[in-house]
């Protein structure tokens, strides 16, 4: 950190801000009072880059606010230096197979055999003293110190009655951290902006390179690999780029659930995991198959009438119409838009998905939903349900149920914040947009049909 401060100080001396009549930055005058605050901002700035893989807006403004008229070049040099140090630090923490094997051997030497009553198996465990000893031995063997061997790491794991932790869990943790550091460095090499926040275009370039390393994806044809790249990029950017800035922090990608899912797909999946992991070959082909089934004329885009047929016409027409009004340009849904639609449909509790559905449900653009708004979609659900030969349900019962589930601050209207705070967005969206989803919920909650007068749900 001292080197970074010296770098900036050197730049300031060459390009001094106008703080006095001589045009020289004087640390002994009024600026001296802000020196501590200035250093605090710089350290916070670097720490923000190190922890988040990029700089937040507030931290970026810190040094500029203190220096006033200092040229932007100083900030750019500091950012470049900080980013370079972050990447170098992560490179040093990456472990190859031989180094991981060495760590595993050291753990085995220090292990204390104990019987796990829950699993009825023998578990290999170490106490804190052995943990510290392992860190020293690993540093000596590998010739580098692993930052993971510190008290905070030890306390992350559950301990037995003698204060020991499971070494297999610890080894898995170290292996994952190494893989995440490698992933961060790899993605950073495609970040042309060098800001720690990668664009969609650059991330797609990373995925094209990544496709060569992912089991089974590397064996796909050129078109299937291109579809996998679009398919994979859609989930990352839809769920993480909530503000639609066109960029996502690399640190955020690596530490997010989608990022970990991508990492898991890279290391190999079981047949069962292939069916549930978004980034697998099986899942990618499944989603693309859904699109091709709807695209009857093979024009590589969908009309409203095409989307009406989704999942055997389970989506209510009003919902499909609103999807096209809010999230489709040019009157036809491209494959990229269809992927966003599928991510929103699959992860309804995610913030980005809630925002996606909210734009659809808030027909009047008032920032809240009324009983009339809820009724508008529910009546369409009942109409579609009757066409399938299902019984009808009193609209008032369902509307009351939805308001009771969300518990809005104003009992007459539901705001976006109410919906996010409620934790029941998935159920609400299913009730109001999907006939199959409505009846699945109905079976669980036992909503009364017409003729039931007990007033219960």
Automatic annotation (TrEMBL):
Query: What is any one of the record's Gene Ontology cellular component terms?
Result: cytoplasm
Query: What does the UniProt keyword field contain?
Result: Calcium, Cytoplasm
Gene3D superfamilies listed in its UniProt record:
EF-hand
Q: Which GO terms describe its molecular function?
A: calcium ion binding
Q: Which GO terms describe its biological process?
A: cortical cytoskeleton organization; microtubule cytoskeleton organization; regulation of dephosphorylation
Name all EF-hand domain ranges. Answer: 178-213
Compartment(s) of residence: Cytoplasm
Q: What name has this protein been given in UniProt?
A: Serine/threonine-protein phosphatase 2A regulatory subunit B'' subunit gamma-like
Q: Which organism is it from?
A: Planoprotostelium fungivorum
């Amino acid at each position: 950190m001292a080197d970074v401060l010296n770098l900036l100080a050197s730049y300031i001396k060459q390009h001094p801000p106008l703080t006095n009549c001589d045009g020289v930055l004087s640390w002994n005058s009024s600026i001296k009072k802000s020196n501590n605050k200035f250093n605090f901002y710089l350290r916070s700035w670097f720490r923000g880059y190190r922890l988040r893989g990029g700089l937040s807006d507030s931290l970026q403004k810190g040094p500029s606010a203190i220096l006033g008229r200092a040229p932007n070049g100083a900030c750019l040099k500091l950012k470049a230096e900080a980013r370079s140090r972050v990447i170098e630090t992560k490179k040093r923490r990456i472990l190859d197979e031989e180094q991981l094997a060495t760590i595993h051997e050291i753990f085995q030497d220090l292990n204390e055999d104990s019987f796990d009553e829950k699993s009825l198996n023998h578990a290999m465990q170490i106490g804190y003293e052995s943990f510290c000893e392992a860190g020293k031995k690993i540093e000596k063997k590998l010739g580098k110190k692993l930052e993971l061997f510190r008290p905070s790491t030890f306390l992350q794991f559950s301990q037995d009655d003698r204060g020991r932790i499971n070494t297999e869990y610890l080894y898995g943790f170290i292996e994952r951290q190494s893989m995440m550091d490698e992933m961060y460095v790899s993605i950073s090499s495609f970040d042309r902006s060098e800001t720690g926040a990668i664009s969609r275009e650059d991330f797609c370039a990373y995925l094209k390179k990544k496709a060569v390393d992912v089991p089974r994806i590397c064996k796909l044809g050129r078109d299937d690999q291109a579809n996998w790249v679009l398919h994979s990029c859609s989930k990352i950017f839809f769920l993480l780029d909530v503000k639609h800035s066109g960029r996502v922090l690399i640190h955020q990608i690596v530490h997010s659930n989608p990022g970990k899912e991508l990492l898991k797909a890279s290391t190999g999946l079981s047949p069962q995991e292939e069916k549930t992991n978004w980034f697998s070959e099986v899942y990618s082909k499944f989603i693309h198959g859904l699109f091709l089934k709807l695209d009857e004329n093979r024009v590589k885009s969908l009309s409203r009438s095409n989307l009406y047929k989704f999942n055997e016409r389970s989506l209510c027409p009003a919902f499909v119409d609103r999807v096209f009004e809010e999230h489709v340009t040019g009157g036809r849904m491209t494959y990229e838009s269809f992927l966003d639609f599928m991510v929103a449909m699959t992860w309804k509790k995610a913030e980005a998905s809630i925002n996606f559905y909210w734009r659809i449900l808030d027909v009047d653009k008032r920032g809240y939903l009324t009983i009339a708004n809820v009724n508008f979609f529910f009546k369409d659900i009942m109409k579609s349900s009757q066409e399938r030969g299902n019984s009808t349900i009193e609209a008032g019962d369902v509307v009351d149920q939805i308001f009771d589930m969300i518990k809005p601050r104003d009992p007459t209207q539901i705001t976006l914040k109410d919906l996010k705070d409620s934790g029941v967005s998935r159920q609400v969206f299913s009730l109001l947009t999907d006939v199959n989803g409505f009846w699945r919920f109905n079976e669980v909650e036992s909503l009364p049909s017409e003729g039931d007068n007990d007033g219960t749900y």
